[in-house]
Write the C-alpha cells for this entry.
Amino acid sequence: MRDVTGRLMLLDTASLYFRAYFGVPESIKAPDGTPVNAVRGLLDFIDRLVKDHHPDHLVACMDADWRPQWRVELIPSYKAHRVAEEHAGGPDEEEVPDTLSPQVPVIEAVLDAIGIARVGVEGYEADDVIGSYTARASGPVDIVTGDRDLYQLVDDARGVRVLYPVKGVGTLQTTDEAVLREKYGVDGSGYADLALLRGDPSDGLPGVPGIGEKTAARLLAEFGDLAGILAAVDDPKARLTPSQRKRLDEARPYLAVAPTVVRVAADVPLPDAGTALPRTPRDPAALEELAGRWGLGGSLQRLLTTLAA
C-alpha cells in the first residue's frame, strides 16, 4: 500500500451499486435497451460524495469473495441464504437480480477507465479490504456503506467515521461514536460484540438465543466486552439472570468462533494501488467508448467535471 496522506474515502462498492439499482428506475437504459440504472446511479453517488466530502484519496473496495470459506468453516450458515449456486473450487455465486449482474462488469470497466482505484483481494470481502485500509491510514477516513457491520471501525480518535446512506446518497448519516452510543449504547470497538451477540439474519449469524440488541447493549455496558461477559457467566456473583447465564453458557461454541467471522480483517495483503483522487481520466479513449455504448451521459460528465474541479 502506497503512503496515503489526507482524507481517505473507502466505498463499499457492492453495497452502493445495490442501492443504486433499487433506487434508480430500471427505465434508465443504454442505447441498446440494456438497463444501466446501477451504473449511472453509482456514478451519481460518487459525484455527490466527492462534492460534499472532498476526499484526497478514493478506493472502490470490491468483494473478491463475498462469502469466504474461512468464515463459512466457522459458521456454516454465514450468508448461506444468499447463495445462488455453490462452486466447490471457488467462491459461491451470490443471488443477484438478473438485470443487475450484467451491469457489474460495466461498473468495473468505467471505474478503471476513470482511474478510481478498484481493490479486491482474493479470499476476502470488501469489508476486509476497508478494514485493512482503515488500519493503515495515517489521516481521517470516511467509509461509505449501507452495511452496519462496518460501524465497528468507527474511531473518533483516529477520525474514522461511517457515512451511511439513509435515503439514496443525498441523505447520509454521519456515524461517529456519539451516534453509536445514542443508538446502540456502544462505541465502535464494542459494535462487533453487540452484533455477534444479537445475531444478524441478513448475514446468517444466529446470535445468542434470547439476547436481543438492547440486552446485548446492557451486558456490554455492565461487563465491558465479550470476554467480560463470559467471565461473568463463570462468576456466580455476577449480575446475570439465570436464563441469561444459561443461554450464554450454552452458546459458548458459537461465541468462540463468532468474533473471527464478525470482525473485519485488518491485515489483508493490499496491492500497491494508486489511491489519489483522479483529476483526469486514466484512459480517455476507453471511457469515451464506454460512455457511448452504455449511454452514461450526464452522470459521467458530472463526475468528470467534479473530479477536475
